[in-house]
Every structure is written in C-alpha cells, then in structure tokens.
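Morning. Coffee machine broken again, so started the prediction first thing and wrote up yesterday's gels while waiting. Chain of 248 residues, entered below exactly as on the submission form.
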Amino acid sequence: MSGNDIEAEVKQRLARVRERLASACARAGREPSEVTLVGVSKRQHPARIAAAVRAGVRHLGENYVQELRDKRPLVEQLLAGHHPPPRWRMIGSLQRNKVRHAIELFDAVETIDREKLARELDRRLATARVSEPMEVCLQVNLSGEEQKGGVSEQELPALLEACAPLSQLRVVGLMTIPAPSQDPEATRPVFAQLRQLRDTLRQEPGGENLRELSMGMSSDFEQAIEEGATLVRVGTAVFGPRPPLASA
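Came back before lunch.
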C-alpha cells in the first residue's frame, strides 16, 4: 500500500472514530473536548502511526519499552517538521528493570500497580533531573484476572497514599482493562465502578489530582465515555488490524 493510501485509510478510520466519540459524548451530555483519544500503536507500522499523528492524534499508547525504543526514531523521522509532536503513554505492564529506559521514551505511565514500581520510577526521574513530575495513572484490576496487571480495589487506597510523597510523580487518574467480552455492554459496570472509585479517592491522601479515567478500547469506548472516561485507548479502529507477530 502506498503512502498516500495509508494516509487516506487512517484519516478515514479516525474520522469514524471521532464520530463515534462525539455521539457517545452527546448521549452522556458531555463535550468531545473532555475525552482524549489515545491511539494504541502497538505493532503498527511507523507509517501508519505518522499518518494518524498528521490526521490529529496527539497521544499514542505503547505496551512495550523495547518496541518503542526501536520504533520511535522511525516515527519521528517521518514526522520531521510536524508540530506539535505526539505524547507517548505507557499502557502496558512496566517492569522495574525497564524503568530507566521508559523515562527516556514515555511522557506518561498509566500502569502503576505497586509501590516498588512507583518508587523506582520516582528515583529514576529524580536522577534524570526532569523539570516536572511525570503524570501517572494507577492501574486497577477490577476483573480479578490473575494474569492481568493492576492493584486490587482493596489495596488501591494504600497504593495511592504511598505515591503521595513521591515528588517526581503526579497521580492524575485511574486505569482499568475489563475482562474480554463480545458484548460491549458487559464492560459498563466495570467502567462505572472505576468512576466511583476515583470520585471516592479524591477525598483521600494523595487523591487531590485525580481527574483521569483511562478506560475503553475499540469495541467499548462508547460505553466507557458514557460512564465518564477521559482517556480512551483505541487501536484497531484507528490503525486497522495489527500485523501478525513475526515468526521465531
């Protein structure tokens, strides 16, 4: 597919996503400006990512540090001269031994789920002498799936309190990934639960900056918006299907 074809396809896909987003906001009595679209660019070709940025996507979500280390220079080369540059958000599980590289690549981390990770991130940022604290979200596992990252609802207040004295981090919201379902409506109760948790925790130590709700993906971001999402993570609906993993 030629570069022009990729640009046209991604632009068309993005227009449909924005229509869905605006309709969901209208149903919820909200303004589209209240919701930030995060384009999930995992395994997507740099040309598609650059096309999305040129079409207006300002935030990009990646799952793996190593993948972004390899891909970001290629995207930046394609976007040479484009302003403003995209903001990269870590939306995958972050290992402590990857934090040093993560702070060089990401502008925000949405997947803080344990105190040791938060402290390591804070320490590395202090060593790097960044000018401002990094905005982070606490990932909450509301589905109870053992293989999924995230702190439990019961342990969430303690994690929030532990993050409060970390000067290099600013906890601005909560993030969740519901259990997979063929029915988008099945995820709605989880989204409502996360909103209620955020509203309650605003009154707790360290909760004064909680404003973001990162929830909803290509199949259910409309339900998430109706339940209060401020960040929606949309991949295939913007970029198209992910290329298959390379064989070993």
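The first helix runs from residue 3 to 28. Going to sketch it on the whiteboard this afternoon.
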